Structure prediction request, 217 residues.
Amino acid sequence: MSSGELLEDETNSHSGRHAAVRLGLRAVLEQRPGWEVIADVDDGRRAFEVALEKRPDVAILDFSLPHMTGVEVARLISKHLRETEVLIFTVHESRVLAQEAFRAGARAYLVKSDANKMLLAAVEALMMHRSFDDGRFSAGPRREQNGADAGGQKLSPRERHVVTLVAEGYSNKKISSLLNLSVKTTEAHRATAMRKLEINSIASLVRYAVRSNMIEP
Prediction:
């Protein structure tokens, strides 16, 4: 069976290093007979456009992409390209971020430090439409829906993501780095979410996140 993978990585001041990472991944994947890398882009919005055009079997998305995060792209692919499986590729060893990726429709969450020993196995599993379990981050059923209550349904995907990370203990600065946002924009998303949920303290926000299954207690 031939396979198309859509490879991506984040772009920032270290764009040259990230380009080298993508080049390395491409070389590893193309060693497998029958596999073909059909696109290699570094922008979330462009990634989804290319996915719509190329319709790959597997899309490998960096968590931290410009314009749209890998999780946001995964959510769109889940909705519009159900035949395409998604692997989120990241430096962040975070259970809560993995859960967000799986809720968006990804079926594998792979930390970059594990790529050499797990990348091919992860892609092989996705090619057979199976989730990949690396022993730390396990996907649930395909296209798992968010467990939010009625209040959570009022939140946009970005607001929900910010709430989840705040509840997990991430600082505004760290959240901004993960989501490629300014600190001011992150603070605005948090404030809007708290207003929608009628919550006025971080402690209450954490309790809401636990109750809504956004994070584990």
Summary: Residues 5-14, 141-150 have pLDDT under 50 and may be disordered. The chain is about 50% helix and 15% strand. The CA atoms of residues 78 and 179 lie 19 Å apart.
